[in-house]
Structures are given as C-alpha cells and as structure tokens.
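Q: I have 434 residues here and want to know how they pack in 3D. Can you give me a structure?
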Amino acid sequence: MNANVVHLPRPRDARPQEEGLGFFVRVGRNDHKEILDLIATGERGIFGFVIEAQHVKRHADLIAEAQKSGYDLILDPKTQAMGFPGGHTHSLATLPWGLPRHHRLADFDGTAGRQRAVQIVEVARESGFTQLLGPTHLLSGPNDPWLQRDIATMRWAFEEIARGGSGIELIYSLALPIDVLRREDERSAVISAIAEAPCDAIWLKIENFGDDASGEKTAAYIAACRDFHGRGVPVIGDHLGGLPGLGALAFGAVGGIAHGVTMLQSFKAAGWRRPRSPGNGGPSRRIYIPQLDLLLKRDAAKALLESSPRVRALCGCRDTHCCPLGPRDIIGRPARHALYQRAREIENLGATPESLRVPQYLDERVRRVSDDVAAIAALANRIEPLRESLFKKQAEIGRFRQIMVHLAGFGRPESSALAPRRRVPRRQRGDRAS
C-alpha cells in the first residue's frame, strides 16, 4: 500500500470502547498548539490534560477546546516544586498562593494553609477544571512534617470544593522517593496516614523512577502499588512512561499513567533541591522511537533514520494515521507522533482482557523491543552518534525482559488498580466532576 495514502479516521462505532486504561498528558508551556491539532482530529486515546497553574491563561484556547470535547482538565497547583529553592520561579511567585520565596511549613499552618487551599480551588473552579491535583509536597518519608500539613490542606480543599458545588474531583498527588516506596514499613505508614485525606484518586509521583527504570526497580514499583488498591480509588502513575509505565499497566499496578510530551516521563527532583541557576533553559523536544523504547534528540533521531533503508524500515512510523509522510513527520511533528503512538499502546493494552495483558505486554512490547534493539545495535557502527547508547540499551532491555518474565511467572496478581473513568461517561452516570 502506498505510504503516502492518508486514511480517513475510523467511524466512532468501529473504535475501541470509551472506557479503558487511563492516559493523561502533562502539557508543557509550548505544547498547546500541537495538542489542539490532536484534539481537532478526534483523538480519544487521551483521557485528560494536566495544566500547570502558571500557564492557565497561556493555555486558555486549549482549555476551552478540551472542555467542549469532553476531556478532563486537571490543575497542577505546583506546590511540590514551590517547596524547594530550585523549584520556585518568578511565575510561580505570582500565583495567588505564591510567595517571593519558596514555601515553608508555616505557610500552610492554620488560617494561612486554609486560605491557600481556597485560592487553589477558586482558580480551578473559575477556569473550568474538572479535577485538581491536591496541594501536596514531596515527602522524605512517613515522618516528614509536610505529610500532616498536606492532609490538612487536602481536607480544606475538599471542603471548599463541596461548599462551591463545582463537582471538581480531588486527586491526592503522593510524591515519594522510590527508596521510601519500596520499604514496606514506611510505605504502610504513609498509606495509613493518607487514609484520613479525602480524595477521588491517587497519583503516585515517585522520585528516581520512570521510563528509564531498570527491571528490578519496575518489579518493586509494581509490588508496592498493590498496597494502594485497598483505598478503592483509581491509582495513576504520574511522570511515568516507557516500558516501565506500560508494564505497571499490564500487571495491574496502576489504572493509568500521566506524562509530558516527549518529556516528564520520569521524576527527578535533584534540581529542586539546589538554587536555580540563571539562564537555564528547559529540555528540548525529543523524538519517540517506539520500536526501541527510546526518546532521542532530534539530531540523533535523524542520524538513525537516515543511516540505512533497513534501519528506516524498522524504526520508521508505518501508521499513516499518525505519520502520512513517514520519517519526515516523525522528525517534523514529534509531539503528535509521540502522543499518538503512546495512546495506541495504552488503548490496545486496555482493550485486552486482564488475564491476557501481561502476555501481550511481554510479547508485543518487551520481546519486540528487545529484538529490534539487538537488530539495530548490530548496525551501530553505521550510526556513530548512537553507538554507545544502543549497546547500553541492548544490555538494559535484556535484563529488563528477564525480570518481567520472572515476575509474570508468579501468576495473576491478587488485585488490580481501578482504572479512571472518562469525563463523558461520568457525566452520563451523574457522577461528580461532570
């Protein structure tokens, strides 16, 4: 079939069902134009968009279109970043709950804490958000004094939402280091503490974990997530992409994932802990190569796709719904390509019966990526900019595959995370946040 043929979208009744595993996109400062184009094509693999509070006005058109199209809109108040010298910025300081310096514990005591919760809910309500990431902070462990402040602030936010009758759903954004999450006693203590906090979902934002995680870390994350299932609310892996994110979905550890547009697919807070350096630019857009489970810089991706017809045939996008011009669209429209491909990965996994998700993940994703990385690594001498990274990826994916196969050998898990429901079905059922 001619690769330049652009297929018309499938009729709605031929598309996957509305419910499935969740996919939420964290919208960066300059992502709104690409996402508006994606919405205009009728993309339904995405459940909702996370908008950072300092960009609400900048993304006004995106917010309006997402509202009309039935997507969830989730406000991130950025309180986690605002709790550190390196996370605090001038734009965050201008928010109603901002200060000229980074937040301190006393800023969330008593009346001051309640007022900040009210201000955050007011912005969410006035801007038409359907969900709110609660005003929480990155914890060092169960004894971190921020934990009790966060629980109190979540209660105040819940009360303000109820008072206003807006129906906004409140999400507990739990940010922890991976070393704390994987220690059973500390994890249990945190779970017991937040049982007192009202929430409609829990989003796990785990420091030093994400798309670059090893198989061992991924297995530990999957095991730890099961302790959150007893709360009876959806559990979402935030800042989580790549094979670890898809694995957490396949093994039922989480019911959805959230990440940025070719970035923010892992969470590292080292930069928050040190003062900001003037002139630091943000990360540049990367190119998603799903066959290799890699996000590459533009020059590296171009070198890969131009290295040989064989490599181009293996790593190019053959989905004409996504990239009608093949490699030219992968490089020229990286945001659309990355989001479209990730949405299809999650959509296909969600459409598979739970009992078959792990075998499909191992066979369709892990094995294929492992085989394709090996095939491309054999040609690495022709792709000098990627030579070392390809050999490294080959060793890593081999170990990752072994650990995931071993994990699958234990049989079906005792519990699976609840998946989030889309905004439209919630509205039809008369749920909150419609």
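Q: Anything worth noting?
A: Residues 287-408 form one domain. The chain has two domains: 12-273, 287-408.
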